[in-house]
């Protein structure tokens, strides 16, 4: 007997969370690049909110709306200059109900 | 007129609240900055809270702190894909008048702690992100720039309780950014179930609680730990692995968590639950060798920002609370003898922290992070598989003579790691544990 493995999309998980999105002011920006570095590419797998995705030209794009502000992308990519990283403005961003 | 504070505390987590409370309750003029809408809204933890370290700050916290369950049982599971080998410890002695460990929900607990901080007299400013340290001509830290209009605030000393990924200390060059191999990324879900269902599944009653921590193939060759903590009406369930391992293996943390939830040993415990939150957080895992300079002219660093986390014992918030309290006590001592908040005077914080369990414990395990990191596939995959094989072989009664079963088990260990490998792993583990 095979056991059906329930697969929950990350987007659906984030739907449970509360966010106050700072419209038009993303707190993380991916710097323009031709070919993503290994660490930047890794973020398309490793970001727990799946904010990073490859576009059809093979470049990494970010949608920071669902960001949980863990800082993983900062640890991997700030030093190499792949991204520009900040916390959201005070009050904005994820608001954990339980944390 | 510019308002001048005795101290500015950046962050309202465990270390920041401990520092702000201690400073304010001794009459110092304290400003605490928190970027979240309310204290706790940005904070994530497993979460287990150790009573002793909070008692040293707020002795009667049990009267009104939001506590979930006190722990009477701890399980450690070594897992392969279909099994777990477990060590359990349960004792009725933990049902004492003043229990030692509790599960908590950080957003609720931090709100309570912050209320205590305000009652002690500190000014707590939420929705304010500290963006930069302000220094005078001699490089002494004299304040903090915030993202509010005209938002510079001044103080004699700044307590950096900004967490593992804090901006201020790293931008000002007071500490290095953590490296991918010295931080773990943990993801966690809150699974809600009726109280009586949790009681039944974990064999507890009333306020009793149970902890399950799991290592093995659930972390897929990475150095990692899964956990399952019982709250009153929910279960905190998560898994964390080193960021460097996640990046090297190109693993999705969310998929890793889903796979853990589907493990046959874990699935029945959370069956039918409603998930109400998904959170992620970095945990400092560099240990003693990753601790930065803790003090300087006009500043001290506490808690996760100072890498004060004991990954081997999964203790973090108690080290954070203690470092916050000790930093505050050092500042109070310097102030009481009218000393300026210079590097020389604030060295007292380091001296006092060295004397506490915080630094002594981290020093004891100074070699563990490197060992587990370089040997993760053996410790987290090979040995768990071998343990499962040995246990199953031993328990199946199939007419095979016991001596043959013993030989097969020994051969499996030697095959997987070689005699030399087994001895070397044991020796290295013993040396690092010493």
Automatic annotation (TrEMBL), chain A:
InterPro entries: 4Fe4S_Fe-S-bd, 4Fe4S_Fe_S_CS, ETF-QO/FixX_C, Fd_FixX. Coiled coil: none annotated. Residues 58-88 form the 4Fe-4S ferredoxin-type domain. GO terms for molecular function: iron ion binding; iron-sulfur cluster binding. Keywords: Electron transport, Iron, Iron-sulfur, Metal-binding, Nitrogen fixation, Transport. The keyword Electron transport applies. To ferredoxins from P.putida and C.tartarivorum, ferredoxin I from A.vinelandii, ferredoxin II from D.desulfuricans. Could be a 3Fe-4S cluster-containing protein. This is Ferredoxin-like protein. The lineage of its organism: Bacteria, Pseudomonadati, Pseudomonadota, Alphaproteobacteria, Hyphomicrobiales.
From TrEMBL, chain B:
Residues 368-434 form the FixC-like C-terminal domain. Pfam families: ETF-QO_FixC_C, FAD_oxidored. Keywords: FAD, Flavoprotein, Oxidoreductase. The keyword Cell inner membrane does not apply. GO terms for molecular function: FAD binding; oxidoreductase activity. InterPro entries: FAD/NAD-bd_sf, FixC-like, FixC-like_C. Could be required for the formation of a functional nitrogenase Fe protein. Probably accepts electrons from FixA/FixB and reduces a quinone. Belongs to the ETF-QO/FixC family. This is Protein FixC. The lineage of its organism: Bacteria, Pseudomonadati, Pseudomonadota, Alphaproteobacteria, Hyphomicrobiales.
């Amino acid at each position: 007997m095979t056991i059906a493995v329930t697969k929950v999309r990350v987007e659906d998980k984030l739907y449970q969370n509360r966010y106050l999105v700072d419209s038009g002011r993303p707190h993380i920006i991916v710097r323009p690049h031709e070919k993503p570095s290994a660490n930047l590419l890794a973020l398309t797998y490793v970001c727990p909110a799946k904010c990073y995705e490859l576009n059809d030209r093979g470049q990494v794009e970010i949608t920071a709306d669902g960001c949980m502000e863990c800082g993983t992308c900062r640890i991997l990519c700030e030093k190499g200059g792949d991204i520009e990283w900040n916390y959201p403005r005070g009050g904005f961003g994820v608001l954990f109900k339980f944390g | 007129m510019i308002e001048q504070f005795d101290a500015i505390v950046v962050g309202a987590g465990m270390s920041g609240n401990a520092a702000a409370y201690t400073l304010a309750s001794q009459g110092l003029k304290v400003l605490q900055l928190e970027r979240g809408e309310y204290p706790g809204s940005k904070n994530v933890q497993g979460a287990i809270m150790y009573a002793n370290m909070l008692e040293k700050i707020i002795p009667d916290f049990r009267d009104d702190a939001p506590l979930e369950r006190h722990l009477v049982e701890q399980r450690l599971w070594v897992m392969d894909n279909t099994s777990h080998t477990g060590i359990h410890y349960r004792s009725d002695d933990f049902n004492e008048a003043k229990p030692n460990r509790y599960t908590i929900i950080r957003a609720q607990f931090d709100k309570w702690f912050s209320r205590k901080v305000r009652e002690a007299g500190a000014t707590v400013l939420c929705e304010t992100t500290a963006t930069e340290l302000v220094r005078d001509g001699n490089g002494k830290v004299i304040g903090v720039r915030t993202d509010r209009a005209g938002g510079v605030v001044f103080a004699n000393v700044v307590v950096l309780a900004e967490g593992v990924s804090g901006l201020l200390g790293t931008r000002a060059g007071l500490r290095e950014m953590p490296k991918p191999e010295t931080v773990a990324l943990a993801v966690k879900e809150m699974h809600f179930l009726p109280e009586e269902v949790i009681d039944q599944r974990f064999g507890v009653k009333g306020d009793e609680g149970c902890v399950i921590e799991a290592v093995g193939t659930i972390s897929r060759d990475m150095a990692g730990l899964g956990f399952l903590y019982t709250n009153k009406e929910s279960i905190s369930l998560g898994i964390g692995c080193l960021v460097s391992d996640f990046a090297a293996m190109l693993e999705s943390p969310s998929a890793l968590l889903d796979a853990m939830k589907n493990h046959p040993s874990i699935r029945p415990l959370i069956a039918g639950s409603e998930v109400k939150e998904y959170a992620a957080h970095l945990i400092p895992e560099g240990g003693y060798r990753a601790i930065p300079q803790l003090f300087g002219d006009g500043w001290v660093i506490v808690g996760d920002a100072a890498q004060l986390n004991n990954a081997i014992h999964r203790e973090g918030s108690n080290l954070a609370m203690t470092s916050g309290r000790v930093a505050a006590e050092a500042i109070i001592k310097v102030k009481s003898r009218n000393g300026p908040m210079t590097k020389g005077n604030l060295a007292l914080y380091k001296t006092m922290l060295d004397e506490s369990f915080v630094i002594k414990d981290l020093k004891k395990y100074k070699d563990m992070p490197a060992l587990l990191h370089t040997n993760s596939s053996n410790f987290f995959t090979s040995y768990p598989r071998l343990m499962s094989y040995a246990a199953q072989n031993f328990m199946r009664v199939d007419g095979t003579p016991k001596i043959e079963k013993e030989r097969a088990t020994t051969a499996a260990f030697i095959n997987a790691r070689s005699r030399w490998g087994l001895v070397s792993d044991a020796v290295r583990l013993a040396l690092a544990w010493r």
